[in-house]
Structure formats: structure tokens, C-alpha cells
Amino acid sequence: MPTRTYDPALTKAHLSNRFALSLVNYFIDAYDEGLATMIVEDAGLSLDYLRDTERWTSVEFDRRFCDAAAHHLYDLRRPPAYDHPLWQHWRESAASMMRRQELGPIWLLLWAMDGPKQFFADIEQMYSKGNRVTQMQLADHGPGRASVVAVMEGAVVDRPGACWSRRGFFEALPTIWNLPDATVEHTQCIHLDPSAPHCRYEIRYHDRVTRDPRAELRRLRSYVQAVIPRLLEQIDANYLEHREVVLAQRKIASYLPEHVLEAIKINPEEEVVLGGLTTEGAVLFADIVSFTRRCRDFPATEVVRQLNIYFEVMDQVILDHGGIIDKRLGDGIMAVFVSPDGSQDRAALGRAAVRCGLAMLRALPRCNAILRAAGSDDFHIRVGVAAGPLVQGNIGSRARLEHTVIGDTVNLAARLEAAASVDHLLATPLCVDGAEARSEQVLRRVRAKGLGEISAIELAP
User: Fold this and answer.
1) What is the pLDDT of residues 11-24, one digit of tens each?
2) Topology annotation, domain 274-460
3) pTM of the entire structure?
């Protein structure tokens, strides 16, 4: 059976699966698994996905889940108002999570705290373990009370269910320490007052943990007995899965740039689908001069050995300058310079690519010295650099994907490399300004096939 894939918009790392799973389990207990399955499937995921507590769901999935629940439970075509009975399911499921085994070892971590007071003192860090789009801020606190503000990330707006879920969570939190429920007043709500910047909760609780040590030990033992067997089984399964992941990552680490690997760890669905996005970047092409003749003059094994010496030197230069080795085209190298966080514009990336290209030309004598020591002839190269818009993403078919960049900027860099003088670098003026003031520069007009005549600057190392 083929592995099921999901809409990457639903699997972004916003909310821990533990929260969604507690709601699903609540619906299973209150209604039945068939109804819960229909709600989850209508929202775009599956029970199998949600039962993997190491995965995440997005705010978009949470919205769709709310809409699907409103439809199946109350025959509503749109999410109801804040005070509708539907949202009490969110409140009750969040409370039940504190009393059930869904929290797993997190329950033990919370239990080890010295009561609710310590939790609220550290709420910003604790809450972020399972929610990456809502920041909890402790606005005020005192004996037996806490005032908490929920700040949504950017323009994210959740459904009223999130408000009720937070309320149920705060109400039931003291039960971890065998204390009575807290009382929670939702004094400020973005769903009741459109002018409210954030949601605010006033929480009152018993702040003194008074318990019978023997009874508490029996309670803890009962919890551990219920949780540990499943936890050990999960640890064993996670170890085998981790081993397979490490082996697979070793294989692909040489093919994908580091920022793509990190994105795959967070949201695999988003990074393995076909498609691309428009970004800014620079492209560098480097090619060995007269390589075809070398292939005729030397045995294939010798040519491969010489290329490996060359790549060993040049690859390190590219990596040292922040480049991504996109692909090899026989004896050629295509390197890409992008800014994953968008902090660098195309000009800055172009200058980085030029600095890299000149460093490659300066490293060539060292490479040639190694070749000569091995009885081989020198290499001579040409380098071309261009910067501009790029389409970056996965191209190909599901049988074989390639993460690469395409577009006119790529074509222009290739044309400039072909037009460059031997052991020189040819780049667009945008990439050269201030990049290497001490390099010899010559202004040229280059006719690039398919792109017309363009101005370019040639540099020598």
C-alpha cells in the first residue's frame, strides 16, 4: 500500500499532535471512533497521522477540524459564535488531557514542579513545547493567582475553540498535583471584542500543595504503571525509526542543502511534493576548459581521479563562502547562493557568489600542484555569475525528484561562464559592485543566446 501524503499546509509545525489527539480521543469516548474519523478525514488528515505524537499540525488544520466538527455534530456550515455548546468540547477535552495518559512523560515533568505557581512562572517556555504560534505571557501573578496573555503569531487568528481549550487547560492544570480545579475568567477575548489585541485569562488556584505523601506515591505509581509499558514500547520503536532516519539522512545530506534538510525535519510533506517558489539568489557556473579533449587523452579512471581532486578543492571553497552545490554537469559545477531567512537581497548574494568564484580561481594553482604531483596536466576554468529571481523547489516526478533552481538567472550565469576568458570570472555588474575592489576588472558586452546583448564585468583573481 503506498504511503499516504498530506497537504503540507496542514502539517506545518504549529501545534503538537498531543493537543489534537486529546480532542480526537474525547470525541471517540463521547461519540464513537467512526464519527471522530469522519471529522479528522474531512479536515484533511487521518487518525494514524494524529496518533504519531512526535508530529505536528497547523493552525489551518485546526480551523478545518473545527469546521468539520460543527458540520458533523450540529449540522452547521460555518463555525458558530463563541458561546455555542460546540466549543465546550474543546474545553472538556483540554481538561481531560490533564487527567489522562495523552501527556505521557510530560505529565511527569509537570508533576515534578512545585505546583501551579512554578508552572505559571515558567509558562512562556512550558507552553511553547506544544504550541509554536501562541506565546503565553505572564502579565501578573501573586499567591494563588496568575494573569496570562495569549499572543498569536503575526496575523494568525484561531477559532473560539482555542480560547475554550486554553481555559479548560488552565482549569484542570492543578489536578496534576491532586489539587482542586482552578477558576478561570476570560477577561479579554479577540472573538468577543474585535478591538482586543490578545486573549487574557485571570486564573485563581490553590497554591499550597498539601498532600498525603503515601497517597501521592500510590497515585504516581499507578500513573507510571499505566504509562511506562507503552512508553518503553514507543522508545524501542523510536530507536529503530531513528536509526533508519539517520542512515537515510547520511545518504541525502550530500544531495540537499542544509536549510532544506532542516525544513524536511519540521514538515516532511512540504518538502517532498512537486512544485517551487520564487525567491532571490545568485548562481555560479564553473567549467573546466578543454575537458572533452582531456577525456580523449586519458583513460576514464584517470579522468575521474583528476576530477575528484578538482572537486575536493573547489567544493570546500564553495561551502566556505556559503554556497550550495546544486549539481554537477560532467566537469562543471553549478552553485547557488540563497538566503533562507530573506535577510540578504540579490545584490548581496551576487557579491558573495563573485567572492566565491574568485576564491576558486585563486585555489586553482593549489589544485594544479596536486595534479602535477600525480603526473597530470593543469586544469584551467571559466566562471560565470548572475543574480536575480529564481524558482526554487522540487522538479521531476514522484519516481525521482531533484531540488534545484531554474529561471533566466540560471541561464544567464551559464551564458556568462561560456563567454568568460580562460581563468577569469564574468559577472553582471550588480554582482561586482564592491565585491572585489582589488581584482582586475574589464567591462564587456556579451551576446547571450536567448537573452540578447548584456553588460558584464570580467575579473581576474
Assistant:
1) 888 888 888 888 89
2) Alpha-Beta Plaits (3.30.70)
3) 0.55
